[in-house]
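Structure first, sequence second, as always.
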C-alpha cells in the first residue's frame, strides 16, 4: 500500500469522524434544548432520552458521547436555572440514559437480544425517575390549561395598568412541593417574582398578594403624607389593610389612582390616654382626610396601652363615623358607648 493511499484513507477517516462527532453534538444540543424546565411539558415527554438512544449507535467513543450529552444538558440548564439541584438532576438523568443506551447498543450491534431488554428497562427507569423529579406530561398539560384559564381571568394583558403587563413561565414540576408551578412577574416590578401552583385541583397564588401590596403603596404613601403635614408631632402609622373585593382582572388592570375609594387602611395612633381621647383624635384625623378629598373604603383606627388590650374604631367610607368598637385581648366587648364606659370603669381604664 503506497503512502498516498494511506494518507487518503487517514483523511477519509478523519472526515468521517468529524461528521459523526458533529452529528453527536447536534443530537446532544437537541436533547439539552428539550430537556429544560423552561420548555414546559416537552421536557417531561422523554424525548431527550430517545435522542440519547439514537446517539448510542454512532460509532465513536462512548465516553466522548456521554460527556457531550451530559455537559450540553448541564450547560443549557445552568444558563437559565438558579437552582443548581435542578440542573444536576437533569444532567444525572441524561447521563443515566446515555449509559443505559450505550450498553444496550453494544449488545444489539452484536446481535444479542439482551440489548433490547436493557434498552427497554433503561428507558422505563429514566421515564419513571423523570416522572418523580421532572414531572408527568399528562398532569402538566392539565395544569397548564388550568393556569391559562386562571391567568386570563385574573391577570390582564395591558401596559396601561398600574402594574403593567404580566408574564408567566410554562408549567414545570416542583419536586420539593410536589406541585405543578408557573412563575410570574409584572413588567413594572420585575424584581418581585412569585408563582402559581396547582396541587390536586387547588390553585395557590402567591403572586396576587404581592401585586395587591404594590398597588396599595402609592395610596398609603399619599395618606401618610397628608396626615403628617396636618399632625407633624403625632405618633401614628398608616398601613394598607386590604382592597375592596373585586375580580382580579379588574383590580390588576386598574390605572393609577382609580382605586382610592376601594382602599382599606389601618391607622395606628400612639399616645392615646383614654377612650374619649381616642374618639376625639379619630374625628380630627377624619376631618382632615374628608376635607382633602382622598377616598377610602374603610379605615380602622387603633390605639392601645400595654399588650393586653387595644381600642379600635372602624369607619366606613360612606359614613362620617361609626360607633366606637373597643376590643379586649382582641375580642370585641361592645359597640355602644354605654357598654364600653361600663367596661372601662369596671377595669379602671379611663
Amino acid at each position: 500500500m503506497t503512502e498516498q493511499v494511506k494518507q487518503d484513507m487517514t483523511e477519509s477517516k478523519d472526515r468521517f469522524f468529524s461528521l459523526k462527532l458533529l452529528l453527536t453534538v447536534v443530537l446532544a444540543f437537541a436533547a439539552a434544548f428539550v430537556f429544560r424546565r423552561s420548555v414546559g411539558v416537552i421536557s417531561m415527554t422523554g424525548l431527550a432520552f430517545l435522542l440519547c438512544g439514537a446517539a448510542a449507535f454512532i460509532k465513536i467513543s462512548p465516553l466522548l458521547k456521554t460527556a457531550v450529552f451530559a455537559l450540553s444538558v448541564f450547560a443549557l440548564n445552568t444558563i437559565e436555572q438558579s437552582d443548581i439541584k435542578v440542573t444536576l438532576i437533569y444532567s444525572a438523568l441524561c447521563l443515566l440514559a446515555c449509559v443505559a443506551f450505550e450498553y444496550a447498543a453494544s449488545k444489539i450491534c452484536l446481535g444479542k437480544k439482551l440489548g433490547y431488554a436493557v434498552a427497554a428497562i433503561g428507558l422505563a427507569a429514566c421515564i419513571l425517575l423523570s416522572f418523580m423529579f421532572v414531572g408527568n406530561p399528562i398532569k402538566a398539560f392539565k395544569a397548564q390549561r388550568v393556569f391559562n384559564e386562571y391567568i386570563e381571568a385574573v391577570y390582564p394583558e395591558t401596559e396601561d395598568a398600574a402594574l403593567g403587563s404580566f408574564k408567566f413561565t410554562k408549567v414545570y414540576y416542583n419536586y420539593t412541593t410536589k406541585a405543578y408551578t408557573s412563575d410570574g412577574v409584572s413588567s413594572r416590578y420585575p424584581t418581585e417574582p412569585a408563582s402559581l401552583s396547582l396541587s390536586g385541583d387547588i390553585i395557590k397564588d402567591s403572586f396576587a398578594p404581592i401585586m395587591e401590596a404594590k398597588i396599595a403603596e402609592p395610596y398609603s404613601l399619599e395618606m401618610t403624607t397628608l396626615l403628617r403635614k396636618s399632625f407633624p408631632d403625632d405618633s401614628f402609622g398608616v398601613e394598607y389593610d386590604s382592597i375592596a373585593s373585586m375580580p382580579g382582572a379588574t383590580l390588576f388592570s386598574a390605572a393609577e389612582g382609580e382605586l382610592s375609594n376601594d382602599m382599606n387602611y389601618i391607622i395606628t395612633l400612639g399616645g392615646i390616654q383614654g377612650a374619649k381621647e381616642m374618639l376625639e383624635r379619630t374625628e380630627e384625623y377624619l376631618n382632615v382626610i374628608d376635607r382633602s378629598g382622598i377616598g377610602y373604603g374603610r379605615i380602622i383606627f387603633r390605639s392601645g396601652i400595654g399588650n393586653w388590650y387595644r381600642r379600635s374604631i372602624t369607619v366606613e367610607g360612606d359614613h362620617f363615623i361609626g360607633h366606637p368598637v373597643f376590643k379586649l385581648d382582641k375580642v370585641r366587648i361592645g359597640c355602644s358607648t354605654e357598654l364600653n364606659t361600663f367596661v372601662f370603669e369596671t377595669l379602671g381604664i379611663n
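Margin note: The chain has three domains: 3-135, 139-205, 210-347.
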